[in-house]
Amino acid sequence: MTNSVDRRTQAAQKRRRLAAAAARVLHEQGIERTTLADIAHEAGVPVGNVYYYFKTKDELVRAALGEHRDRLDELTAGLDRLPAPHDRLRALVETWVSQRETTARYGCPTGTLAAELGKRADDSLHAEAGAVLRRLSDWTAAQFRAWGVPDPDDHARTLVSAHQGMSALTHALRDPSVTTREATRLLHWLDSLRAGPGISP
Amino acid sequence: MTNSVDRRTQAAQKRRRLAAAAARVLHEQGIERTTLADIAHEAGVPVGNVYYYFKTKDELVRAALGEHRDRLDELTAGLDRLPAPHDRLRALVETWVSQRETTARYGCPTGTLAAELGKRADDSLHAEAGAVLRRLSDWTAAQFRAWGVPDPDDHARTLVSAHQGMSALTHALRDPSVTTREATRLLHWLDSLRAGPGISP
Amino acid sequence: MTNSVDRRTQAAQKRRRLAAAAARVLHEQGIERTTLADIAHEAGVPVGNVYYYFKTKDELVRAALGEHRDRLDELTAGLDRLPAPHDRLRALVETWVSQRETTARYGCPTGTLAAELGKRADDSLHAEAGAVLRRLSDWTAAQFRAWGVPDPDDHARTLVSAHQGMSALTHALRDPSVTTREATRLLHWLDSLRAGPGISP
Amino acid sequence: MTNSVDRRTQAAQKRRRLAAAAARVLHEQGIERTTLADIAHEAGVPVGNVYYYFKTKDELVRAALGEHRDRLDELTAGLDRLPAPHDRLRALVETWVSQRETTARYGCPTGTLAAELGKRADDSLHAEAGAVLRRLSDWTAAQFRAWGVPDPDDHARTLVSAHQGMSALTHALRDPSVTTREATRLLHWLDSLRAGPGISP
DNA sequence: GATGAATGAGACTTCATTCAT
DNA sequence: CATGAATGAAGTCTCATTCAT
Question: Where DNA binds (residue ranges) (chains A, B, C, D) (predicted)?
Answer without folding.
Answer: 35-54
